[in-house]
Amino acid sequence: MMGFKALKQNGDTIVEVLLAIVVVSATLGAAFTTIDRGTDGARASQERAEALKYVESQIELFKAGASSGTAGLFGRGNAFCLTSSGGVLEVKEAFTTPATVETLDGQSLGDYTTECKNGSIPDGYNVSISEAADHVFTFRARWENVSGNNRDQIEIKYKLQP
């Protein structure tokens, strides 16, 4: 009778290799997603910090204009911005009610006066100042956010007596 020799198995089966590929792919996918979210978060923080800088700049220009008696700062019906030379410019878009982050999508950023746009992002940070009752001023910066599908806004309220 003829004998059969048992073959030694060296190496992995195709199922083991496929399982290893699935595990490595899932791990790399999770790592990529985590890194991508972290990068978007960092960019969003950077955008907010830059927008805050422009709003604070408008506040400083406003305080300087108010103390030197610049005409046209108080009692304006429409939104405006201030130039670095202290000029007062009307923003083409009139804010009849204060804009909120939820209502920004329906409002055009393209209506802003060129001088009211600042920053290094493509459409700029659109700054505006509007006055409410009792000389409470709202300083805003609006921009397209890092994801490109929504707008973002920073808003600071400031009270100043004429």
Topology (elements, then pairings):
Blueprint: H1 14-68, E1 80-82, E2 88-90, E3 117-118, E4 125-131, E5 136-144, E6 151-159
Antiparallel strand pairs: 1-2, 3-4, 4-5, 5-6
User: How many helical elements?
Assistant: 1
Largest sheet: 4 strands, antiparallel
Number of strands: 6
Taken in chain order, the helices and strands follow as: HEEEEEE
Globally, the shape reads: rod-shaped
Q: Return Rg in Å.
A: 28 Å
Q: Give the % helix.
A: 25-40%
Mean pLDDT comes to 77
Give the CA-CA distance, first to last residue: 114 Å
Order of strands, widest sheet: 3-4-5-6
Residue share in β-strands: 15-25%
- Unreliable spans: 94-105
Structural class comes to: alpha+beta
Structure description:
The chain is α+β, with helices and mostly antiparallel strands and 162 residues long. The protein is 34% helix and 20% strand. The chain contains one helix and six strands; from the N terminus they run αββββββ. The chain has one helix spanning 14-68; strands at 80-82, 88-90, 117-118, 125-131, 136-144, 151-159. The strands form two sheets. Strands 3-4-5-6 form a four-stranded antiparallel β-sheet, covered by helices on one side. A two-stranded antiparallel sheet has the order 1-2. The longest helix has 55 residues, at 14-68. Residues 94-105 have low confidence and may be disordered.
